[in-house]
Design a protein that fits this description.
Layout (H helix, E strand, L loop, with lengths): L1 H70 L2 H11 L8 H26 L5 H15 L2 H11 L5 H19 L1
Length: 176
């Protein structure tokens, strides 16, 4: 019986060591899982930053392209200057057409910025600045009219609603 007790003690000790080893391996495995999740999280954050950077770059390129095309279009520039000065009645038909087409491009730039904000690709600060810019552009009656007309048939519903809201704010402010 003494041998049996001694054998059990050895066996018990081995089981205890195996259990401890198993527990330690589980703890190490748990830390490895946590570390890998942290790594994946950091990678996702970096990918998001890269995506946002590319979004800003693409928007900048689109705006520069639009501004370059606008600056190279003397007919549209003439119409826009007349509209800015409140001389809408002096805008000839070809100028009106050029202005309308140019502002359609601008409308889509703002629509795109609004979409990117809604999807989280640009910051709230960026959108706030862009929204103020949209408001200032729409304060010109000819632009407001063209944007409002176009939003009746083009662009995303969310942006059409925003254009309507801004147009109503401008009209209310003008009525004060």
């Amino acid at each position: 019986m003494a041998n049996d007790a001694k054998g059990l003690a050895v066996l018990w000790g081995q089981d205890l060591n195996t259990t401890k080893l198993h527990d330690w391996l589980q703890i190490i495995g748990l830390f490895a899982v946590v570390a890998s999740l942290v790594f994946v999280g950091l990678e996702m954050r970096q990918a998001q930053k890269i995506s946002m950077s590319q979004t800003y770059q693409s928007r900048t390129a689109a705006v520069v392209e639009w501004q370059t095309a606008f600056a190279a279009n003397p007919v549209a520039l003439s119409a826009y200057r007349k509209a800015m000065n409140g001389n809408d009645d002096e805008i000839a038909a070809p100028e009106q057409d050029a202005l309308h087409r140019t502002l359609m491009g601008l409308y889509y730039l703002y629509d795109n910025a609004h979409y990117q904000y809604q999807e989280g690709f640009v910051s709230a600060e960026f959108w706030a600045s862009t929204r103020k810019s949209l408001y200032r552009v729409m304060e010109t009656p000819a632009v407001n009219e063209i944007f409002s007309e176009f939003s009746g048939r083009g662009g995303r519903p969310e942006f059409r609603s925003l254009v309507q809201e801004i147009s109503e704010q401008i009209e209310a402010q003008a009525g004060d």
